[in-house]
Specification:
CATH topology of the largest domain: Beta-clip-like
Structural class: alpha+beta
Protein name: SET domain-containing protein
CATH superfamily of the largest domain: SET domain
Shape: globular
CATH architecture of the largest domain: Beta Complex
Domain SET: 5-141
Distance between the termini: 53 Å
Bound molecules: zinc ion
InterPro entries: SET_dom, SET_dom_sf, SET_domain_protein
Helix content: 40-55%
Strand content: 5-15%
């Protein structure tokens, strides 16, 4: 039986070292790669060094071939700091990968990467259609940062100037993007603060964010669908909760696939919107 044909190749990316490129057209939602780490790392440098020492010779070869931008620390630690991806959102533990660590940055990524603790693998899913030959690019940043904050973070942590389409856009274009991002952040804060006393307003803020997201490419909707679902379920508007739960499930499958950590939970919400742990905990209100 022949191995599954990969849809990517790792090769020279002019001006950026190595990079990952599509070898065929890739559809939005497709899983491009699921990869086990070469090594796990943490802030405990001794533990990290011991884990590096314990790698197989083959894995060490892949590890030491990775890029290093930190010359003020031992090479192995520099490689970890340059290439590690966080395991989940707490940012304490991380891992280094043979292929995943080669994916370059853009502020407008065409893939979403996520750690799956159940499978103990990092997954890479296409969040838009990617044409054959295009570079596969992820984001090293938290979402919804303005240009200045993105640049400062990348300079400080990755020591490069970003020249992606978003950063290199003409001033009126990036100013429009930045003002949209600022509004998303304001509405995003208001969603949860208003949920306890004005759930109708809270749902309205979710809708506002979704409209704004469409103006900047339409990515990143999943957490907001979750907010819409959770608030509707809390207040017992199960017709609305059903609508949000369906959107949540579809969006999540596109981001992280059916193997994603939260798939079973979101499937359960979609099958029964009353199954949220806080469903009906607030006085019933029709929010639609
Ligand atoms: Zn950029």
């Amino acid at each position: 039986m022949s191995a599954r044909q990969e849809c990517y190749v790792v090769k020279d990316a002019p001006g950026k070292g190595m990079g990952m490129f599509a070898t065929r057209d890739i559809k939005r939602g497709e899983c491009i790669l699921a990869e086990k780490p070469l090594v796990f790392a943490s802030r405990d440098l001794i533990k990290t060094q011991l884990a590096i020492n314990a790698m197989t010779e083959l894995d060490k070869k892949s590890f030491f071939a990775l890029h290093n931008i930190h010359f003020d620390v031992p090479t192995a630690i520099g490689i970890v700091r340059t290439n590690a991806l966080p395991l989940g959102s707490d940012g304490v533990d991380c891992a280094v990968y043979k292929v995943m660590s080669r994916v370059n940055h853009t502020c407008a990524p065409n893939v979403h990467h996520t750690w799956n603790p159940k499978m103990k693998k990092e997954y890479l899913h296409a969040i838009e259609d990617i044409a054959s030959g295009s570079e596969i690019l992820t984001s090293y940043l938290e979402p919804f940062l303005v240009r200045e904050d993105r640049m400062e973070f990348l300079r400080k942590n990755f020591k490069f100037e970003c020249h992606c389409n978003l950063c290199a856009a003409p001033k009126p274009e990036y100013e429009l993007y930045d003002s949209t991002v600022r509004r998303i952040n304001i509405y995003s804060d208001l969603i949860m603060t208003s949920a306890s006393f004005s759930p109708k307003k809270s749902i309205q803020f979710v809708r506002e964010v979704l409209v704004l997201l469409d103006k900047i490419g339409g990515e990143g909707k999943t957490p907001f669908y979750y907010d819409g679902y959770q608030i509707s379920a809390m207040y017992g508007d199960y017709t609305l909760a059903q609508e949000w739960a369906n959107l949540l499930l579809d969006s999540y499958i596109m981001d992280e696939g059916k193997e994603g950590e939260k798939y079973e939970r979101y499937l359960k919400y979609s099958k029964n919107p009353r199954s949220h742990e806080r469903a009906g905990c607030a006085p019933r209100q029709i929010l639609s």
